[in-house]
Design a protein that fits this description.
271 residues, alpha+beta, globular, three-stranded antiparallel sheet
Length: 271
């Protein structure tokens, strides 16, 4: 609560440093996947319930019954650097720390179990492994809270921007997710029309981008709609799936959540 009062969006982390699901339906990050549920499904929580998107400064959410279970299980506190307006250069070993001390301008520093966090003012795209032992955590990412640190915070240096721009974002669609048979009857599939398929994918991207809340559910519904219309025709390619995954990740979904939503949609349709 004290961190949230200081405008730091926080979330509970488990012993493995991963975010905890903040409601029963999303325990262990399995959206809608309780063992007693008959079929998998999308997350229908009233707010983002885990991951970086769940980090919040809202005291009512933090003290809610839904989050209470997660906080009791938590072994660490995480926060969303981008939501706090900062960027964390995560240095994971002594060699990375040595590189930072000889390359980056001094800034606020927090000692970690294996290295240091160098915290700069401003936000940037988050990218892992920009160089050996160095991750950049800011937008759409979380970091572990280990204390206020020491030193004066500097602005993000050009050298950090250069590392991020040099390392492209990687989207990994589920391999083979749409290996399905064409409809029977021997007729020509109407979805072979490039314009028809392109319009459908563009509309799906727009629906994901316009989702104001319940992003998990919105992504699942869009994936389900696309598969319902095009999944059995053999029209979809890895490029189409990649576009949908990219749109979902731009709204805060992780690659894993995208893959889970796609898998759940195919199971729901019996594919």
């Amino acid at each position: 609560m004290a961190l949230a009062d200081g405008h730091l969006p926080v979330l509970p982390l488990g012993a493995d440093k991963r975010p905890l699901g903040n409601c029963r339906d999303c325990a262990d990050l399995e959206c809608g996947g309780r063992p007693n549920m008959k079929t998998p499904g999308p997350c229908v929580c009233p707010w983002p319930c885990h991951g970086w998107a769940a980090a919040t400064t809202n005291p009512h959410v933090l003290a809610s019954r839904q989050w209470g279970l997660a906080w009791r299980r938590a072994r660490a506190i995480g926060y969303h650097p981008g939501g706090a307006g900062v960027t964390v250069v995560d240095l994971d070993n002594p060699a990375a720390v040595t590189w930072a001390r000889t390359t980056l301008p001094p800034t606020k520093t927090v000692v970690t179990t294996r290295g240091e966090h160098w915290i700069y003012s401003g936000t940037i795209r988050s990218v892992n492994a920009v160089r050996p032992g160095v991750d950049i955590k800011s937008l759409m990412a979380y970091a572990r809270w280990l204390g206020p640190g020491t030193g004066a915070m500097a602005d993000i240096p050009a050298s950090v921007h250069a590392l991020v721009e040099k390392k492209p974002a990687v989207i990994r669609p589920a391999s083979g997710a749409v290996v399905v048979s064409a409809p029977g009857g021997g007729g020509q599939c109407r979805h072979r029309s490039p314009a028809y398929l392109e319009r459908g994918i563009a509309m799906a991207e727009q629906r994901i981008a316009e989702a104001a809340s319940g992003v998990h559910a919105a992504v699942y519904r869009v994936f389900l709609a696309v598969l319902s219309a095009h999944g059995r025709c053999g029209c979809l390619t890895e490029a189409h799936i990649g576009r949908l995954f990219t749109a979902a990740q731009a709204k805060g979904e992780s690659a894993r959540h995208c893959t889970d939503a796609w898998s759940n949609a195919t199971k729901t349709l019996g594919m």
